[in-house]
Amino acid sequence: MSGKDNGYLDMELLRFTTAGSVDDGKSTLIGRLLYDSKAIFEDQMEALEQASISRGGEEVNLALLTDGLRAEREQGITIDVAYRYFATPKRKFIIADTPGHIQYTRNMVTGASTSNAAVILIDARNGVIEQTRRHAYIAALLNIPHVLVCVNKMDLVDFSQEVFERIKADFIQVAGRLGNQDLHFLPISAKLGDNVVDESTNMTWYTGLTFLGLLEALPVGEDWNLNDPRFPVQYVIRPISDEYHDYRGYAGRVASGVFRVGQEVVVLPGGQKTTVEAIDFAGESLEYAFPPQSVTLRLTDEIDVSRGSMIVDAINQPQQSQEIDLMVCWLSEKPLVLRGKYQLKHNSNELRCIVTEVKYKVNINTTEEIHDDLSVGLNEIAQITIKTTKPLFFDPYKKNRDTGSLILIDEATNNVVGAGMIL
Predict the structure, then answer these.
(1) 280: how many CB neighbours lie within 10 A of its CB?
(2) pTM attached to this predicted model
(3) 69 and 203 co-located in one domain
(4) Is the N or C terminus of the chain more exposed, i.e. has fewer CB atoms within 10 Å?
């Protein structure tokens, strides 16, 4: 499905997030990736060399390429999400370099929420530690399709295959309990460049792809849910001139599934049945549309459709309910208020809700449930129940990341306070 008829650019986009413990080398890995793949400009390189010298370094500090905040440069640690963009002849990439510390769990959730892959770094000297288990849990919670486990600093353990295999076995045991799906393991040295862009001459026992090779090979097209047609309406296009006096289209992004001309659909929340008359994209007509295309659907019948409506397949419809269970990552320093009222945003739909119950919190270091302390504060993850002012139409997050996610907003401050994944 590529080419002019569907509006896709030739190259796919892969979003990936990086996570690891403090000083595991996340920023150095991304710096090495950009440097060796020649994805930085000469002036950036000169600035990098000057910054490294000013810090008293004898060699170029590649971590500075991704440490975007002055504070994190001064402290020598990553404290926020630093986004970077680059491309190779095979694929385009968006990198979210996220913090490893427990007090920045919300930053990792933010960076990982839209990612196709999670890159988890492990220091070869330390192996699987508490923070590794936490990052694996968050990757599983957010249903990230692919997990790349990079055992870094192999140069400090004499490039030992035995060390690598032991760490791999330990992580597989953790992932088995959590439900992480597509796992890939590779031994690297971000500092020296082994198996990042170029194959390592120090670890000839490893015969898999390099880090970049793996990123280019991941089957991103399979990550989209193509089984459940969902089209949240963002904007209603009405006639703008006499020439188009009878034009009425519904603009939005295909969240999942495939929509075809002639397909029988239902418009929620009203439940009216109709068919897709036409699919418009950039002045052209398409026979079908699929995620993540932004298109305009025209329907055969004139029915009540507005922003916040969802066009779905007539037979395959989402769930509808006012009582919803979800896992929530709390993003605000102001704690969750039981029986508190919040604004809820789900796709293009906005409504109000009340938190009726906190069922348990999660100790994200051990993944154990906490039932004796149900207060939910900054960076904590909990299962809660909400009741909405009107029915919400949704799919479980495990089935559909797009229609299964929502955010909670403080009505007083208009700040986003919670990121929710519907159960």
Answers:
(1) 17
(2) 0.84
(3) yes
(4) N
